[in-house]
Write a structure and sequence with these properties.
Blueprint: H1 2-7, H2 11-20, H3 23-32, H4 40-51, E1 54-55, H5 60-72, H6 76-100, H7 105-117, H8 119-125, H9 131-150, H10 152-157, H11 160-175, H12 179-193, H13 198-222, E2 225-226, H14 232-235, H15 237-246, H16 253-262, H17 265-271, H18 278-281, H19 288-293, H20 295-308, H21 310-321, H22 356-370, H23 382-397, H24 405-421, H25 431-439, H26 443-448
Parallel strand pairs: 1-2
Helix pairs in contact: 2-6, 2-7, 3-6, 3-22, 4-5, 5-6, 6-7, 6-9, 9-11, 9-25, 11-12, 11-13, 12-13, 12-24, 15-20, 15-21, 20-21, 21-24, 23-24, 23-25
């Protein structure tokens, strides 16, 4: 007992222990919403895992992760429980790193508990979505960058620091189709900022490529995968739709022929919604195979749309991404969030709470944040994202906190990525930004008085 108490006398260990207790409210959500929160995508991927027949329209890395877990326990509850454990471990690590850079323990612990007690966070954590492990990976990178800030020279002196950072970034690449955009931009920035640490940067780059590129390639080669990755042109078809609807004269007859090969023009016009592309791209008459079969032609079509009607495309892009920056929902577009019911399926999956009391309490919390009048504060992430931008703008102005700018850069790069690639207003796309923004609140303790920070500012930043 004395040794246990002695161990927790270390503030870093005490922060870790108290942070790990965040697993308790997450387990309550897991028990109440057993086996998990599942959308149509979740059911599709779980079906692949059970049948051992894959396609990589969803990242094969994530579907393979579901399959591996199913080997131990053939229920989505196993995946949700794994995510609950990993999320609580991450929050414990976040608390530890915050204390290591000078944040007081009560602030660090209060922050991770606020994160976990928010129904938006807890409900998303038990959803079977690739966005959850992606957010875990992004959170891991956040903790590694806090270590870089604490002591850059020490971080780069070891081999395991750069490798951990590279693995985290590699997972971000592998788990979301647009993840590699954030990772590539950030790695290039690292290479410029720490160019004198080229040997260590080779370790980072090798880990990124190994996890982000080689691993998915191996999985496609080894597993029975119908190779149907998302064609980049598919992501920007809603931008073309905006031009078709609002500025059709900007497109040539050849362009319009390509448009009509995907779906009749009447479908483009009737199903287009600048804030939600789902009605259009998932319409039965919208033929995505035409885009995959003529990828170069459709990539040129996108260029023609952007060049021919830049104002229209910019207007569409703002409408599609404004949920990230504007609390006010001017279009009335529905903000997608974890569904309250499991998607209808023939796999026998249905809600079966382990504890009715846990379900009653968490359902009440879910319904509270569902209320339309407070959606701007709950499922619409703009307030929290803006807080993150303000936090790192303040960090940028503090010379003594320069090493923390790397976290801010990751945040801004990924925000730009999500803004230009969001097909709809959906909380899960912003989950990583949401987590980092909330976890960064205690940095204000250091911003107000940088002398409190335990940061070695030597080295490049």
């Amino acid at each position: 007992m004395h040794r246990v108490l002695q161990a927790f006398s270390n503030p870093h260990d005490r922060a870790t222990a108290l942070g790990s207790l965040t697993i308790i409210p997450l387990l309550i959500w897991w028990a109440g919403w057993y086996p998990a929160i599942m959308s149509s995508d979740s059911v599709d991927q779980w079906s692949q895992a059970l049948s051992f027949e894959f396609h990589n329209s969803h990242p094969i890395t994530h579907t393979a992760y579901l399959w591996v877990i199913s080997l131990a326990w053939q229920t989505p509850a196993a995946v949700a429980l794994t995510q609950v454990v990993m999320f609580s471990v991450l929050l414990a690590l976040v608390a530890r790193r915050l204390v290591q850079i000078g944040v007081r323990i009560p602030m660090a612990i209060a922050t991770v508990w606020i994160v976990v007690l928010l129904p938006m966070t807890a409900a998303t954590t038990i959803a079977i979505w690739k966005d959850v492990p992606f957010t875990l990976a992004m959170g891991w990178v956040f903790t590694e960058l806090l270590l870089v800030a604490k002591d850059q020279s020490r971080f780069w002196r070891t081999w395991h620091g750069p490798v951990r950072l590279g693995i985290g970034l590699g997972l971000m690449w592998a788990l979301r189709a647009n993840g590699k955009l954030t990772v590539l931009v950030f790695v290039v920035a690292l290479a410029i900022g720490f160019r004198t640490q080229w040997r260590e940067l080779v370790l980072v780059g090798s880990a990124v490529l190994g996890v982000g590129l080689v691993l998915p390639t191996l999985l496609v080669s080894v597993l029975p995968v119908a190779n149907q990755p998302i064609e980049p042109a598919q992501v920007f078809m809603p931008d073309v739709a905006a031009v078709v609807v609002h500025d059709r004269d900007a497109l040539s007859l050849d362009d319009l022929a390509l448009v009509a090969a995907v779906a009749p023009l009447a479908i483009w016009e009737s199903q287009y919604d600048c804030g939600d592309s789902s009605p259009l791209v998932f319409h039965p008459e919208f033929d995505n195979s035409a885009i995959r079969g003529g990828s170069s032609s459709y990539q040129r079509l996108i260029v023609h749309a952007v060049v021919g009607a830049p104002g229209t495309v910019a207007g569409h892009r703002w409408c599609a991404g404004e949920y990230l920056l504007s609390p006010y929902n001017r279009t009335g577009t529905f903000v997608h969030r974890p569904p309250s019911e499991i998607w209808p399926n023939d796999l026998g999956l249905e809600r079966a709470p382990v504890s009715d009391r846990a379900y009653a309490v968490t359902l009440w919390a879910y319904k509270v944040v569902e209320h339309k009048r407070i959606e701007w504060l709950t499922w619409r992430p703009a307030i929290v994202v803006l807080l993150g931008l303000i936090t790192y703008a303040a960090v940028w102005r503090r010379r003594e906190l320069r090493p923390l700018r790397w976290v801010g850069l990751l945040f801004v790069v990924h925000l730009g990525n999500v803004f230009i690639t969001s097909p709809s207003h959906e909380f899960r796309y912003a989950f990583g930004l949401y987590l980092i923004s909330l976890a960064s609140i205690p940095l204000w303790y250091l911003i107000i008085d940088p002398a409190r920070a335990h940061i070695a500012s030597q080295g490049t930043s």
